[in-house]
Amino acid sequence: MATTNVCQADAASCGCCLMHQQIDRMKRSFNQSLAELQNELNKAMDTLNQFRSTRSAFSVSLFTDNTQTCYGPFRDDTLVVYKHIFLNMGDNYDVSSGVFTVPRTGVYSLALTVYSDAGAPGNTLAACASLQVNGHLLAGPREFYMQDQEDSATTSIVVKLRQGEMVSVNLPIGCFLCDNKNHYNTFSGFLLYTTE
Description:
The protein has two helices and 15 strands. It is of the alpha+beta class. A hairpin with a 2-residue loop joins strand 9 and strand 10. The longest helix has about 45 residues, at about 10-55.
């Protein structure tokens, strides 16, 4: 039995065959492009999810009372436990201990503002605290000035921290902080970028 070329036997069939071949090529090309796009989308989603999982930020203040309340002075150095949470993304700030536990090794921005009120000009005023990592001093904003009734000080630093390190605020002997719903005393930090 002899095979005849459909295109030679029937011109209409020839056009149909060519069209089917072209459609098959287009389907293969489309499916390949779709697979490549899906692969790129998966990569982008993985990157976005990794970025989201590395986000870490917190911002807290001492008190939220309507009336001014002071914390300290104490006979021993005491960790300051900030009770009002503005933000605790990643839940790495522990409101019961006042400690921020570093979730990932990276570069962090930390800020501490202290405020105190002596009650009247001439009274002892000691607005001071120390920002520390694992109990070691990083920075210590202080304001000892007896010419007025109230003072504040702020420090802001950028530092590399390792996963698991503990960042806290220490209230040295003789220092005291006063706060109310205006949130004069704040402690904040956030991850700028990971380094591992």
